[in-house]
Amino acid sequence: MHRHQEQNGAGKAAVPYRRPAARQDAPVPPHGASPAAAALTALQRAAGNAAVSRVVGNLRGRSDGVAAHSAGPAGPVVQRAPSPAPAPAARAAAPAVQRAPADDLVHDPKAFLSHSVLSLDFGLGMRNRAPGLPLDHQAFANRLGRWNQHWFVLVPDARRAKEGRPAYLLTPAVEKYVQAFGDSDDLLAPLSGHRDLPPVLPDQAYLASFYVPYLRGGTAGPDTSVGHSRIPKDAGKQGHGSEFVFTATMNGCAFAVTGDAQDKCFTAWHYQSPSALSNREPAKNFRRDRRPADWFGPEEYESPDQDGLFETTNMLWNGPAGWEVLSQETSVSAYDENDARIAAVRSRPLTMGSGQEAAYTARIYVGRAQTQLKEFMRSLAQARNAAGNTEQQRTLEQHVFKPLEITMAAEPLMLAGNADFAALIGIAVRLKQQRAEALQKVKDWLAAHLEDAAMTHEGGLLHRRISPEKLAHRREKINILLGQFSDRAWIDGLLEEATDHPADRDGAPGSGAPAAGAGAPPA
What we know:
- By secondary structure, the protein is α+β, with helices and mostly antiparallel strands.
- It has helices at 34-60, 101-107, 109-115, 122-129, 137-143, 174-181, 222-225, 280-290, 298-301, 357-385, 390-415, 421-449, 468-486, 489-500, 502-506, and strands at 77-80, 117-119, 152-156, 167-172, 210-212, 227-232, 244-247, 254-258, 265-271, 294-296, 309-319, 322-332, 340-349.
- The strands form three sheets. The protein has a six-stranded mixed β-sheet with strand order 1-13-12-11-7-5, covered by helices on one side. The chain has a four-stranded antiparallel β-sheet with strand order 6-9-8-10.
- It starts with 33 loop residues before the first helix and ends in a 17-residue tail after the last helix.
- Residues 1-34, 64-96, 499-523 are annotated as: Disordered.
- This is Type I-E CRISPR-associated protein Cse1/CasA.
């Protein structure tokens, strides 16, 4: 499964919650450190501790009103994947009352997600639960968004279950949909009375949760192109499990929330692939016009060092402390999709009112900056490998590689934690200027030295004994590096979004009344 290609819902006894033990094979950055830590490490490797100290000192010099972490008032809580449970003590306490897995999820979803892999492959769940039922599972999953009530069950997932680590498939309870909508739905009507249709169970056997559909394709015209649902703010009173809002698997999409803080309902959106090239502009316009109160994207739910396949189960939960975003990141083997392990479990409060627009905008562009930095570092490693002998490497390192790396590695740090559009505008302007100055300086040096015939002497950049093929390879790798460094698309996007956002014109950081003509959230 690749980024921006997502599963469309088709495709333990609980204990009082404790932070699970760390797993050595699943490193997760500490609370609030996901974006900044990766950039700080890259900067440290590039320029040493002195440069890091200068950047940190600048960050500390910011006003006290700027949030230390851009995820919201409380920031995300990140838990590492748990180790297998230890063997019980010789004198164990009386066994706890056994609950059904769905009851465990309702009782303590954070604890449940920390020790049970939860997959959102609706089609597989329905096939496993009723293998003889003549149902087009993909068509059913695509139709979920049409129905205004939903019921789910947890089906054991034998593919991914391991000793001491259960795995489940969140699965639509087809029999409840047949009962509720079978008389008027051509997909469901033939299933009524079928011998392989599971019998209808008591209400407590189901999760009567809310659901946000996932749509494929472009996102222009979000009312019809982006999946969304209206959610009552008092969710949890509508039945067992109604405090949850489920959606399809995410590995590049975003959860967004719109609506006035005083409304009795809010709109939850599953915004598909907002960082995909074709969706960047519509996503930017959506944030400007709809002004989401919150935005939870891959910059928050994906580990910075995630290079392989992954699936993320994201949900909204109206718990004792109010609405929260819950996220389980699962790493999947590239060789066997059944080999999956919990990489991280994250949670943070869900923002309902205005005031966080600039903070999540900063997070979005920190994520894009880190994505470009990761790609740049791969190209940099290739350029270094083609740099020649020790003296040539040292010369290129000093005048080409280091200046570019230091400039780019510092950029996410300059953005992280900002919660003011005016500050974001100023940072974007400085980033463009720094990129231009560093690039011009490197190009001037290369023009004066790399093409200088005097440099063909022993030990020079164009060592007289180097083959034309190796020389061409070196130049190619350096040119690729310069091309990537010249790409300032995300910086231009940040400057445009921060400048155009209504909150910047309201005079209140990250908040204010919608601009005239701005689209209103759907009723």
